[in-house]
Amino acid sequence: MLHAPVTPDGDLLRWVEFPGSEPARVYLHGLGASSAPYFAATAVHPALAGRRTLLLDLLGHGISDRPTDFSYTLEAHADAVAAALGAAGVAGAELIAHSMGGAVAIVLAARHPELVSQLVLVDANLDPITPGPGPGSGGIARFTEQEFLADGWRETRDVVGPHWWATMRLTDRVALHRSSVHLTRGTEPTMRAQLLELKIPRSFLYPERLGEPADAAGLRAAGVAVVPVPDCGHNIMLENPDGFAAAVADALSPNAG
Q1: Which molecular-function annotations from GO does this UniProt entry contain (predicted)?
Q2: Mean pLDDT of all residues in the chain?
Q3: Residues 212-235, mean pLDDT to the nearest whole number
Q4: Secondary structure tally for the chain: helices H, strands E
Q5: Which domains does the chain have, with CATH numbers?
Q6: What is the pLDDT of residues 45-61, one digit of tens each?
């Protein structure tokens, strides 16, 4: 396990790293998750193994520090990841990012273009979300921070179920709420708008049975490869690891697109 200070107060972002060839591959998890449980198995899959690989945990999540004075905006998350990658000597990385991690990855690529050479988004958030009952960021963001810390987290635990809660319970509750609020609000311009303007190779993997992402035609028109993965839901890498590894390897191939 490695780490780097990423805030003025010295809060540490931590990651698990596998040695290998450059350029590095960097994996970012989603809301209430952790990169090693979600990505370790597929990162060493025969289709993807052999590259220097960093499985990063965002601040407030997993094995990283949990500052309560951090804003947890998508921009702040992206800048913290940028600081960690800089400390690790990473540049021009191939970035594979799931769900909220995909939103962070888009902002990272827009704000720190020297750090990202290719972007593989895994059923990522591209647009603002209306808060409302249910699992995920919208369900959490409908609470005020005080309500969530007092009792809302218990409702969230019961709604998300034991699988997601296994990593969500490792997330600081302040970080979980603030990250959810800022994910639902999105960025200005939106994550989608920033993605469309990026000049690097970009792919968007989605679970085939759930249907294409919103405005898939607009993504394709901007040069984003929109790639279905069969036999899975939102957690593509866990539910169809072979299909996920094959889709990522194809997306990162020099001949992709």
Answers
A1: hydrolase activity
A2: 97
A3: 98
A4: 11, 8
A5: 2-252 (3.40.50.1820)
A6: 999 999 999 999 999 99
Q: pLDDT class for 175, splitting at 50, 70, 90? A: very high
C-alpha 78/C-alpha 8 separation (Å) is: 15
For tokens 């939106």, the residue is 190
Q: Who's near 184: CB < 8 A, 6+ residues apart?
A: 128, 129, 130, 131, 137, 138, 141
The dihedral formed by the CA atoms of 79, 34, 162 and 231, expressed in degrees to the nearest 10: 100
Angle at 187 between CA 182 and CA 191, to 5 degrees: 115
Q: What is the pLDDT of residue 257?
A: 52
DSSP string, 159-172: HHHHHHHHHHTTS-
| CA-CA-CA-CA dihedral for 193, 195, 200, 203, to nearest 10 | -140
* 42 three-state secondary structure: helix
pTM: 0.97
Let me know if 255 is exposed, middle or buried by CB neighbors in 10 A (0-12, 13-18, 19+): exposed
Other C-beta atoms closer than 10 Å to the C-beta of 77 total 30
In terms of Cα–Cα distance, which of 75, 28, 33, 96 is closest to 245? 96
Distances (CA, A) of 194 to 127, 138, 248: 11, 22, 21
The separation between the first and the last C-alpha atoms of the chain, rounded to the nearest angstrom, is 35
**Distance of alpha carbon 91 from alpha carbon 173, whole angstroms:** 32
Can you tell me the distance from the alpha carbon of 46 to that of 64, in angstroms, rounded to the nearest whole number? 28
